[in-house]
Structures are given as C-alpha cells and as structure tokens.
Amino acid sequence: MAYNPQWSNGNPRLIGGQHTVRLSDAAELAAAINRRRFLTYQGAQDFSSHLAAGAFVKKATFDSALAPPFDNFRDALAAGVLTPAIGTLGGVPATPAAMDWLWPVSDGDEGKKIVNGYSPPGTGQVGLLPKINGTNHWTNAYLQPAATAIRDVHVNELRQAVEWVHRGRWDLPIYWMSGLFSIVPDAPWTAGVVSNSGVAELRNVGYAVFRDGSSPPRGLAGVTVRSGSFLEVTADADCTVEVRHCLRPLNFSDWLATWNEYNPGTSSAWASPGGMGGGDSTALGSVTLAAGVPGQISGANLTAGLQAIVDGAEHNFLIRRTDVAYVTAAVEARVVVEFDLNTPPN
Q1: Domain end position, chosen among 124, 141, 165
Q2: Nearest to residue 175, comparing CAs of 316, 307, 294, 284?
Q3: Domain span at 157
Q4: 266 and 156, same structural domain?
Q5: Which of 51, 146, 190, 335 matches a 20 to 30 Å C-alpha distance to 282?
Q6: pLDDT tops 90 at residue 52
Q7: Can you give the pLDDT at residue 53?
Q8: Percent of the chain whose pLDDT exceeds 70
Q9: For position 257, what pLDDT does the model report?
Q10: 101 with 121: CB under 8 angstroms?
Q11: pLDDT by residue (tens digit) across 92-150?
Q12: Strand-pair category, 188-189 with 125-127
C-alpha cells in the first residue's frame, strides 16, 4: 500500500483565514509521531493530558513539553524519531544495529539519511528543517504563553515533517542459534558454521528481531518492503551459501532445532530432514563469497520473503553451503530492510 497521508482538517495543509487549528489536528500529529516511535522500538508517549476532548491545544505540546510525561511534538519527532537509540533489544551485535530514515523525494537528495537539521548535515545526509523552511529551526522556535498563538504554519510544518519521515532502513543482525548436522540428526550442533562434504552437511538456523511482542508491536509492522533491501553474508572461507526464510516456529530457548526436528520438545519434524521441505523454508537467494569479503543477496525473492515476515510470518532464517568442500566456513549475516510506511494511518 503506497504512503498517502490524509489529514481530517485542511488536507494536506491548513490555509490561513480558511481553517482554524483544531484539537483533532494535534491528536492526528500525536498518533503519527507515536507510530514512528513504535517503528523505532520506543513506546508511545501519552499526550492525552493535553489532547483530551474539550481541551485547548496547548503551546507546550508543540515546542516546550518535556518527558515526563512526554516530549513536545517537535522534539519527539526531530530528536526522538530521527535519532532513536539503537541496540535497544540487546544481543551481540546489538539489535537493531541502525535505524535510519531516508529522504523519500525524487530529487538529488533521494535516499540520503534524514537528520534534524539543527546542525549542518554531513555527507550523505539531508536536514529536515532546512527542507521545511530553509533554516535550522522551526518557525517561532519558542512559543511564548499568552504571547505567541499556535498558527497554521506550526501545524503545517509538523505535517510536512511527518510526511517526509516515512521511508526507513533498519539494519538487523541475524543470530545463528543452532546447527543442523546430518551426522547427528537428533541433536543440535554448533551454531554459526556451515559445511558440505557432499556426503554430510551442516546447516544453521537463526533469527533476526523484526519486532517485539508488544501490543501494538514495536518494530517493523505496517510497512511495505522496498526492493533496495538486501541480506549480507560474510564467511571466513571461500564458499557459496544459500539463505532461506525458515517458515517453522523455532524454539531457541529450550529446544534447539536438529536435522530431523524443528522442535524436539514437541517432536515436530521437518517435512524434509534439514529443513528444506515444503512448509519448512523458501529460498531468498544465494551468493558466492570470498573469505572475509561481504556478499549481498537481493531481488524479488528476498523482498517477498521480508514482506512476509513484516506481515506476521516467522522471522527465522536457514543458511546452508551449496558448494562441496571439506573446509567448514564460519558465517555472519545481517538483513537491511528498506521500507515505506503504509497508510492509513499517517
């Protein structure tokens, strides 16, 4: 679903003398900002004390409120959303490794990382505030109580910022958790290495954290995966590997998968030993690697597989070596998901 924001009052912009600033305008901005906070693994902020039915739209909501209980709209967006804390879910390496918002407009800056613009943008970056009004601050950067009214420009600038902050690129490490070894088919084996002698084979299964178990979930949900996404693999030996989307629910806490069973705790067998049968996994792509040199997998199969994960499928992966050699290769991998928000909501 393409990103196509809709505002209930003065869509897409308020016009002076024609529209008045409504409480619903602030409520829509709050919802849009919180949606982006969820995507960056942050909890929603509760703006209800300023946005309750019948309340006035308070100036602090726009430019001076501080957490607790909540950050004002401008800081919540330009600071909290554009510069989220990475590695919030732990792990080695940390998850997510990076969460960037990309400039979505088809011009000379398309694809650059969006920064708030309070300081001059660096190489490969574009400043949000300079794009909005040609400065490094919001219009009327400090609204004075009983002196500066909330005007259409203040709402319009935030709407424009929200609409531009809709394309993201999340960098998620893949954690290889269990080896599937044909020689010992009923026991888990060493994680993070693959081998294929032509007679015996060692594969691996693992996962990436696309979202958490919150309701609504924090992380990647309600987005359309873009073709710029890729999966990167590095090995310590020359080899060719295939990476697959593992469709089975794997238990990495108590019952690691084996060559014969994806969950020994419930005696749940793969459709085909090693996880290659129908309903076990689907191919995302393969890559030939030189030792120590990262290689990338991209294309329609990967995009479709990542979209399935975003839409609720298991976020598990299977990696195997497809060339025949007696050398065991240690592998590391990460998946970089580029996406656009879906609408509604904003």
Answers
A1: 165
A2: 316
A3: 23-165
A4: no
A5: 190
A6: no
A7: 77
A8: 99
A9: 98
A10: no
A11: 889 999 999 999 999 999 999 999 999 999 999 999 999 999 999 999 988 887 677 88
A12: unpaired
- Mark whether 156 and 215 lie in a shared domain: no
Reduced to 3 states (helix: H, G, I; strand: E, B; else coil), residue 230 is strand
Q: How far apart, in whole angstroms, are the C-alpha atoms of residue 72 and residue 58?
A: 10
Is residue 175 domain-shared with residue 161, that is, in the same domain? no
Choose the weakest-confidence range: 44-58, 98-112, 170-184, 282-296. Answer: 44-58
Q: State which of 130, 165, 200 marks the end of a domain.
A: 165
The residue among 345, 344, 342 whose CA lies nearest residue 1 is 342
> Which residue is associated with the tokens 């290689």?
295
One domain, residues 227 and 285:
yes
Whether 114 and 128 have beta carbons less than 8 Å apart is answered as: yes
Same domain? For 135 and 238 the reply is no
DSSP state of 132: H
Amino acid at residue number 47: F
The verdict on 105 and 202 lying in the same domain is: no
CA distances from 151 to 15, 32, 40, 215 (A): 10, 19, 29, 35
pLDDT of residue 2: 81
